[in-house]
Specification:
By secondary structure, the chain is of the alpha+beta class. The protein folds into 4 domains: 2-110, 2-Layer Sandwich (Phosphorylase Kinase, domain 1), CATH 3.30.200.20; 115-331, Aminoglycoside phosphotransferase (APH), C-terminal lobe (Aminoglycoside 3'-phosphotransferase, Chain: A, domain 2, Alpha-Beta Complex); 343-391 and 639-732, Alpha-Beta Complex (Aspartate Aminotransferase, domain 1); 396-636, Type I PLP-dependent aspartate aminotransferase-like (Major domain) (Aspartate Aminotransferase, domain 2). It has 22 helices and 26 strands. The strands form 6 sheets. A 7-stranded mixed β-sheet has the order 15-21-20-19-18-16-17, with helices on both faces. A hairpin with a 5-residue loop joins strand 25 and strand 26 (707-710). It starts with 9 loop residues before the first helix and ends with a helix. Bound molecules: 4'-deoxy-4'-aminopyridoxal-5'-phosphate (PMP). 4'-deoxy-4'-aminopyridoxal-5'-phosphate (PMP) binds at residues 443-445, 448, 471-474, 523, 527, 556, 558-559, 585.
Length: 733
């Protein structure tokens, strides 16, 4: 059809308007793919659109469009519709054409004032809701409309996605991997469950008009794709366009869906098919475009026009496949008068008040996937702080390991089990000799608590040296060795058997006192102290001094372990030391409560004084299955290597930010353990809250709470780093 498009000049249009309609008007051509449209203005200022239709267009399809316009104008849609203007002899469609050439059909419609949705930015929630209502009103009205020409085979009809799928072979391998599953999901749709009717069928950004406030949709134009199909396709097609170029495509789509559902309630089957249909439209688009490109290899515009669709498809492919459907279900449910529980109030009433909640406007997160978290409204947040979801939120391999073992057996470590044997063997193998004895526990606190007992049992003393602002856990004994707590609000100060050394600026280490020393606890890079990388040689100097005084050295790797350093699997290895005890937590179970202590046979023997150490949950088969899966994924997906490459890239990007923004100071990091300082806590807090509004999660730390910490899941990509840097640049600016 595109090849047989009419080619009339503006002069021709002026002539036709005069001859056929008795209209003396100026003409300007409007863009159109397969037809020709001229905007006419007569001397009195009245405006019209002269439509010259493709030679291949069936007359009855033009009649369908005219009848639908009249029907809608007589319905209660709240929208404005163009009127069909008859010729002087009372005809609504008239043939025209050049001699010997093909015949075209001419129609005249009244002009509807407004701005295209495509030119309105941003698309506010009010505007998206207005679009949903307008479309629903149109679909509801069209339920009473019928026309034999609507029962046609249209290549854009979502029922005919198979026509587009034939061109899959023209896509590249990576493109096919994104698009193929979408057609597979389309194939599984049960069309018999979807109410059918005549739809507009092309509610794209340039067919929707918005009033001068930019908040209200006033009209829907271009009925050239009208067809009888599943009614919900009308909304799905609109959603495909609504999602393009949006920071939060699913949240934006959900706003349209919610408003649509209020005006024309969607059946359950419609809600559940909606997302599949919307992405089917995108999949069809890129396939037809690939075909057009193959026919016109020199047309660069074709590829450019398709870029936003590909960008969106790539983003959607990174989401859990069933997530958008859940968001649409929620969007509809929240308008059915179901009470939404006041989560904050319940929390205030029943949860211990010594627990804070993140952000001035707390987040209601209900889904995690990879490096992304999703809130109840469908917004996606790039998670730059969760070092627990080490291999990515809800990694399917980890989930399967846990669920599979949970269904088989979950007991304790007093039985033999393959998972336990394999896990302790493989965990020990990641550590240098003589670190070979493993204790499995359920948290970082339990690990450090046990480490403290081991050190005290081994040395027969109870003194501990820790670093300023360190945090090692939430038990009584650990609060006593955590300056972050005992020197913080509500703290009771430093106990007499604990010594605090400053956050190191150089390799030198001065032992505060040598008597009674049991242990030196130190994170291998400091987290609560503000993402501090230890100066080279610091731990060697410290360990030498501690050993000389008869103490043991505990490396708290709860935050820093499992490849985050990038160059090494354990952060202490970057310091060239071997601790006597290593404590593990957070990332070890990717969110499953797991922790571990690894020590030397010698220290383990000292602890085995007759008193048994038993931990009900520690080392159970489910936990071991999870721990094994985490080790598998770190290796299988090259996550340590990614931490190195992406971490270096991000560090360089942050250094670039520091050059442009004087408030950014002391950018630092190793692998995906990074941070930088802002002048004070106020700036840091403001930045974190603003970044959250822009869909990026960060948090603060350090003695002055002015350090921005960055320690994302290790699946964090270069593209994520770019997004983080771009948003930081914006907010800092
Ligand atoms: N050590 C360090 C360095 C930590 O950051 C934490 C927790 N933030 C812990 C130990 C305690 O771990 P958990 O909260 O799992 O008990």
């Amino acid at each position: 059809m595109v090849r047989k498009a009419p080619r009339f000049s503006a002069e021709d249009a002026i002539r036709l308007a005069g001859e056929i309609y008795g209209l003396q008007a100026a003409a300007v051509e409007l863009p159109s793919e397969r037809d020709q449209n001229f905007r006419l203005r007569d001397s009195a200022g009245a405006q019209f659109v002269l439509k010259i239709s493709n030679a291949e267009e069936a007359l009855e399809v033009l009649d369908l469009q005219n009848k639908a316009l009249k029907f809608l104008a007589a319905s209660d849609t709240g929208l404005e519709w163009p009127h069909v203007v008859p010729t002087r002899s009372g005809n609504e469609i008239v043939p025209t054409g050049s001699e010997g050439g093909p015949a075209y059909f001419v129609r005249l419609l009244t002009w509807v004032e407004g701005r295209c949705l495509g030119y309105v930015r941003p698309h506010s929630p009010e505007l998206l809701a207005s679009l949903g209502r307008g479309l629903a009103a149109t679909d509801a009205a069209l339920a009473g409309f019928s026309h034999h020409a609507a029962h046609r085979t249209l290549y854009w009809d979502l029922r005919n996605a198979a026509l587009a799928r034939r061109h899959l072979g023209l896509l590249s391998g990576p493109q096919r991997r994104i698009v193929e599953p979408l057609f597979d999901a389309w194939e599984k749709l049960d069309w018999r469950t979807l109410p059918a009717g005549v739809i507009h069928g092309d509610a794209n950004d340039y067919n929707i008009l918005v009033d001068e406030t930019g908040a209200k949709v006033t009209s829907i134009l271009d009925f050239g794709d009208m067809v009888h199909t599943a009614t919900v396709c009308d909304l799905a097609i609109a959603l495909a366009y609504v999602m393009l170029d949006k920071q939060d495509p699913i949240a934006a789509a959900a706003q349209v869906v919610a408003a649509y559902h209020q005006r024309r309630p969607l059946a359950v089957a419609e809600v559940d098919a909606l997302y599949t249909l919307a992405v089917t439209r995108l999949a069809m688009s890129v396939c037809y475009c690939a075909w057009q490109t193959s026919q016109n290899p020199n047309n660069e515009y074709l590829a450019i026009s398709n870029r936003p669709a590909w960008a969106l498809l790539e983003r959607l492919a990174a989401m859990p496949a069933d997530w958008p459907r859940d968001v649409f279900r929620r969007a509809c449910a929240s308008h059915e008068g179901r009470p939404t529980p006041d989560l904050l109030a319940t929390r205030r009433r029943h949860l211990g008040p010594s627990l804070s909640i993140s952000y001035r406007q707390p987040l209601h997160i209900i889904r995690g996937w990879g490096q992304y978290l999703y809130d109840a409204g469908g917004r996606a947040y790039l998670d730059c702080v969760n070092n627990v979801a080490h291999v990515g939120h809800c990694h399917p391999r980890v989930v399967q390991a846990a669920a599979g073992q949970m269904a088989l057996l979950n007991t304790n470590t007093r039985y033999l089990h393959e998972h336990l044997a394999e896990y302790i063997e493989r965990l020990a193998a990641t550590l240098p000799e003589p670190l070979s004895v493993v204790y499995l526990v359920c948290s970082g606190s339990e690990a450090n608590e046990l480490a403290l007992r081991l050190a005290r049992a081994h040395t027969g003393r109870d003194g501990v040296i820790v670093i300023e602002t360190a945090y090692h856990g939430n038990t009584n004994a650990l609060i006593d060795i955590s300056p972050y707590k005992f020197n913080g609000p509500g703290g009771r100060g430093k106990p007499p058997n604990v010594e605090v050394v400053p956050i190191p600026r150089a390799a030198a280490f001065t032992l505060p006192r040598a008597d009674n020393l049991a242990a030196f606890f130190c994170e291998s890079a400091l987290s609560c102290a503000g993402q501090v990388i230890l100066p080279p040689g610091y731990l060697r100097a410290a360990y030498d001094a501690v050993h000389a005084a008869g103490g043991v050295c505990v490396a708290d790797e709860v935050q820093t372990g499992f490849g985050r350093a990038g160059s090494h699997f354990w952060m202490f290895e970057t310091q060239g030391v071997v601790p006597d005890i290593v404590t593990l937590g957070k990332p070890i179970g990717n969110g499953h409560p797991l922790g571990a202590v690894v020590t030397t046979p010698e220290i383990a023997r000292s602890f085995a004084n007759g008193m048994e150490y038993f931990n009900t949950f520690g080392g159970n088969p489910v936990s071991c299955a999870v721990g094994l899966a985490v080790l598998d994924v770190i290796r299988g997906e090259g996550l340590q290597e990614n931490a190195l490459a992406t971490g270096d890239y991000l560090l360089r990007g942050l250094a670039g930010l520091a050059q442009r923004h004087p408030s950014v100071r002391d950018v630092r990091g190793l692998g995906l353990f990074l941070g930088f300082e802002l002048p004070a806590a106020e700036e840091a807090d403001a930045l974190v809250n603003r970044m959250k509004d822009l869909g990026v999660l960060l948090s603060t730390d350090g003695p002055l709470h002015n350090v921005i910490k960055i320690k994302p899941p290790l699946v964090f990509s270069r593209a994520d780093a770019d997004l983080l840097l771009e948003r930081l640049d914006r907010v800092l600016g």
